[in-house]
Task: structure prediction
Amino acid sequence: MKVRKAVIPAAGLGTRMLPATKTVPKEMLPLVDKPVIQYIIEEAVASGIEDILVVTNRAKSAMDDYFDYYPELEDRLLSSGKEDLAGVVRGVADMANIFYVRQKATQGLGHAIGRARRFVGDEPFAVLLGDDIMMSEKPVLRQLIEVSEKYKSSVVGVQQVSDEAITSYSSVRMTNVEGRVYEVSDVNEKPTQEEKFSNFAILGRYVLSPRIFDILDHTAPGHNGEIQLTDGLAELARTGRMMAVDFEGRRYDTGNLKGFLEATIDFALKDPQTGPWLGGFIKDKAKLL
Ligand code: UTP
Result:
């Protein structure tokens, strides 16, 4: 079945990016000249997604404002001859059909995904974490959707991480099927070195069977007292087919300062407007270090 819908959970408190995220949602922090969430929506659209649900909370209305029309601003830009910029501003609002639902209490990623049940209905759907962005030739979500359609299964995007890093992620037990595609038999959240299944970690992109909603309904709070998506994924993998793709591309966690700065530098270097200047600036700085 075609994957047409995506869910972006963006209701986390963003405590690793305080104090900036006290009033600015971390998904709205600018990466070069666009907010983080715009990159994620662009990836979803480039992957063939038509409808997108953003899971927000009471402190995040800047996101729905951003994807709305702003006639006063557009009129001002048009009347001052800035048609290009007016087109950019309007284009943001026309990128996709974007829907919103509030997670009324911050009870974890699994709980946030559960809020999407009515939107998703009975079809496979994509999940893109609101603070994980990708730099890749082929959109990472597209890579997952192709595997999902071929194997008629749920799919998680994975990459190998260091021994130290795996303890902060979900570790996957899996066996190779072909090329970069694996079959998943189990998953665990933030494992110790003894508990980990492998160094393959799930990194922010999923295609899920709607069975996940029934599973999340009876998933007990896990790590941190929150309903963990990983616990739901483990049951989904044990009771049905789940594949993993060792995706091509680089992932950045913009929800922490180091990942945010790395993404800012890499995306600014790649941008033709800022890249040549920034490259020279960094070389000059490096001489002083
Ligand atoms: P994170 O753990 O990265 O986000 O959750 P956080 O909770 O905002 O981070 P810190 O630790 O406080 O800095 C992964 C994803 O799940 C969403 C987040 O918005 C992020 O996209 N999330 C998390 C929710 O939507 N609701 C929750 O209750 C928790």
Observations:
- The domain at 5-255 is CATH 3.90.550.10 (Spore Coat Polysaccharide Biosynthesis Protein SpsA; Chain A).
- The two ends are 54 Å apart (CA to CA).
- DSSP finds twelve helices and 13 strands in the chain.
- The longest strand covers residues 170-178.
